[in-house]
Amino acid sequence: MSDSGPRRQQQVAALRHGTVVDHLSPGMALKALELIGVPQEGAALIGVNLYSEKMNRKDILKLENLELTDDQIERLAVLGPNASVCFIREYEVVRKVRVTLPDRIAGVLRCPNPNCITNHDRLETRFDVEKKSPTTVRCHYCERLIAESEFTLL
Questions:
Q1: For position 75, what pLDDT does the model report?
Q2: Which of 13, 61, 110, 124 satisfies CB 3.0 to 4.6 Å to 152 for a cystine?
Q3: Is the peptide bond before 112 cis (omega within 30 degrees of 0)?
Q4: What value does the mean pLDDT of the chain take?
Q5: Measuring CA to CA, how many Å separate 113 from each of 5, 25, 87, 118?
Q6: CB contact set of 20 (below 8 Å; sequence gap of 6+)
Q7: Widest CA span of the chain, in angstroms?
Q8: How many angstroms separate the CA atoms of 26 and 108, rounded?
């Protein structure tokens, strides 16, 4: 029997050491794992489309024996402008970072417009954030508006 409502709490195994990326936009956990990379040592636990009081639905990543860099956290903002990153040591949260979406995103996403110059020349992609939730960006070069559901990582 499955329960998709808020009456039951969903639980995922606790981490001894690692990083938890919580409150990713629904459907973005696999893209976030692609962006970060699979841990070389330890497990990667993925929760997709989980119930959230704050967001209604969310994704979550638990990465064993991996601590994200500041650069990785900044890049995650594209996939979860409401995300939080918790660093875990000996089962305790030792640091929590709220992800903030910048006004401009560079070198993270690919423009889906096949005629965009970034798909033909070696230019770093740049997007201006038009809307933060759900995230919508505009390509700096071809000016195409791109919805979160169209995001493709470089």
A1: 85
A2: 110
A3: no
A4: 88
A5: 38, 23, 37, 9
A6: 60, 61, 62, 63, 85, 86, 88
A7: 52
A8: 19
The residue with tokens 């000996």 is: 90
Give residue for tokens 């954030």: 129
Higher pLDDT, 37 or 20: 20
Which helix (H) or strand (E) segment is 30 a member of?
helix 29-36
Which tokens in the block code for residue 124?
């770093």
- How far apart are alpha carbons 66 and 39 in whole angstroms? 6
Whether the model pTM is above 0.90: no
Quick check: 151 and 134 in contact, CB under 8 A? no
pLDDT at 106: 93
* Least confident stretch, 32-46, 93-107, 110-124: 32-46
pLDDT at 4 over 60: no
Which residues make Cβ contacts (< 8 Å) with residue 13, sequence separation at least 6? 45, 62
Q: How far apart are the first and last CA of the chain?
A: 40
